[in-house]
Amino acid sequence: MGECVYGMSKDFQGIGMTSQRARNRLVEQLQQMGVRSDRVLDVISTTPRHIFVDEALASRAYDNTALPIGHNQTISQPYIVARMTEALMYDGIPEKVLEIGTGCGYQTMILSRLVKQVYSIERIEALLYKARERFYALKARNISARHGDGNLGWPGNAPFDGIVVSAAPIGVPEKLLEQLAVNGRLVIPVGKSGGQELLLITRTEEGFEEKRLDSVSFVPMLKGVG
Ligand code: SAH
Q: Residue 104 sits in which domain range?
């Protein structure tokens, strides 16, 4: 492994369209769009998104867009990753976070650099294996990722201080609410394609509070494993 600059191993820094300059430009765009958290912006500026997409798409890795990752799935738009992470961290940094829909692992990686422990569930095994290789290469040791149906959560490691869902169910899965700690936050897109909303649900002593964050467009959250 090479020398580290900006906290990133030289092997992953990239050149040209995948360089630090490209990441800085992306961060400027996110700031203009209203992302405020310096912590989140800093982690985005030092995480190599180009490692999480196919080599043929690497030159577009720092565009603020979703990109295909195979199996009919997409890597989420950086703005959405930033928004969701910011919403999760608004009240302080959660220790233990569950992510549903590992996909290529980019959101997982961002979370792993901000919180103590990340658990992530993916229903398509091939995507999970690739994501795990990236976590290993980038030396992220606080991620446990497994194959399964995220609708069921991960009861063995519950309760979670935060849950982030990267695919949209029609309604909020009951098990995810159950596995949220008191004061814990669930960030989840809900609804049919064409009419989804990103919700922030906070568990209180008495029940749950819900806030609408944005209109969004996610791939559907499916049932069972792929
Ligand atoms: N954060 C990921 C998003 C990938 S797209 C990224 O940026 O790459 C959403 C992912 O959710 C897909 O990989 C899809 O396979 C997964 N998914 C959909 N339904 C699921 C379910 N019930 N359980 C676990 N993962 C699911």
A: 67-216
166 counts as catalytic: no
Regions of the chain with pLDDT less than 70 = 1-7
- What pLDDT, on the 0 to 100 scale, is given for residue 7? 60
Rounded-to-integer distance, Cα 32 and Cα 26, Å = 10
CA of 53 to the centre of ligand 1 (A): 15
75 pairs with which residues across the strands?
A: 67
For CA atoms 155, 200, 146, 115, the dihedral sign is: negative
107 Cβ below 6 A of ligand 1: yes
- Pairing between β-strand 117-122 and β-strand 96-100 as defined by DSSP bridges: parallel
User: Does residue 136 belong to any structural domain of this protein?
Assistant: yes
CA 100 – ligand 1 centroid, Å: 6
Looking only at the bridges linking them, the beta strands covering 208-216 and 196-203 are antiparallel
Q: Is residue 222 part of a domain?
A: no
Which ligand 1 atom is at minimum distance from the Cα of 151?
22
CATH number at residue 120: 3.40.50.150
- Is ligand 1 within 6 A of the CB of residue 101? yes
The CB-side HSE value for 203 (13 A sphere, CA atoms) comes to 17
Joined together, the tokens standing for residue 116 give 């103590």
- pLDDT value at position 13? 87
Ligand 1 within 6 A of CB of 151: yes
Q: State if residue 190 touches ligand 1 by the CB under 6 angstroms criterion.
A: no
pTM confidence score = 0.95
